Predict the structure.
Amino acid sequence: MGSSVSHAGAPPPSPAAAPPPPIPVGLAAALPPNTEVQGDAKGVSEKVDWLNLPCPVAFEEIQREALMSLKPELFEGLRFDFTKGINQTFALSHSVFMGSMEVPSQSSDIIKVPTAHYEFGANFLDPKMMLIGRILTDGRLNARVKCDLTDNLTLKINAQLTNEPHFSQGMFNFDYKGQDFRSQFQIGNNAFYGANYIQSVSPHLSLGSEVFWLGHQRKSGIGFAARYNTDKMVTTGQVASTGIVALSYVQKVSEKVSLASEFMYNHMTRDVTSSFGYDYILRQCRLRGKLDSNGVVAAFLEERLNMGVNLLLSAEIDHSKKDYKFGFGMTVGE
Amino acid sequence: MAAKTSLKGKGKAGKGSKGSEEGSSAAKCVKEWSTWAMKKAKVITHYGFIPLIIVIGMNSEPKPQLYQLLSPV
């Protein structure tokens, strides 16, 4: 209605009795009436199309926002990565690491072993196929293959091969994506078989479950997960028969800032951990920090110095075990 | 009669055990073969995966030159 649109160009209705509807001039003629459009949009957003729910996030990525904010790749020592793109799809990478690696020990002492290695890698990234291989100086190979067999079926292979016998690991995943569900079947070494399924139940809520069977140790397990997300927040919960309960909550406070918190309880070892973290994504840098109930404070900074050159600073301070880890590094290339 | 049935029974049992032996040896053969195949596949993957990626990458479009593999520019 022309009268409800407030434009400078529209003439006021003449104050005569039974005024005729004003003839829209100027802007009012150019723009469509406002309220009708708003009313339609509101009506559509209130009605949920239950047959057209969005495709949910994959089961293993249910906690991806929380993991991205709370678990950056902290390291101790020097790290230098150089990625050389040869092609749109093909790239080689060289990476040097010099620092201390922690060796798991039986006692509560922390044993650190100084290590240095050079890693050569090749990436081939096609829309349909992705091949990533990394080989270290001690002979370990990390291979990842992701292949889209059809529009909905994807094959993923993940393998770590070593020179020492019986230490290699491999996993084959077959993913099927439906309109509002995803399912996955996994086959791994040591006779590991797993399957998981996640379904969108409402535009914001998705529920999923997984089962696995470990042949060599005759163990099996089942787990359930739920994820509720809106534009501003994501909350997930996971329960497994291995006795693990994990809850997480991520709130996107603004475009640049998000806060995350996580709670994990292990019934078998009676271990409780909760952590709280922040994630600042600014124009030139990304700063992530976290505070743990085990007395660990960590921070990770990636600063963009120039086009393609990034500076990395990593710090992890464990007050309870008196373990201080600081690392610095540089990443060159895309 | 009893002797006949017992002989028949033994014959069947004999055949059954022979059959199960053959069956189990076939399963053993398959297991040995698959273990041998997995070992060979592991060695081939270990040495050949990265060269395979490089060959596929060098043959993709636009075709890169050989010196681009080695130069740091």
Notes: Residues 56 and 200 of chain A are 6 Å apart (CA to CA). The two ends of chain A are 54 Å apart (CA to CA). Chain A has a mean pLDDT of 86.
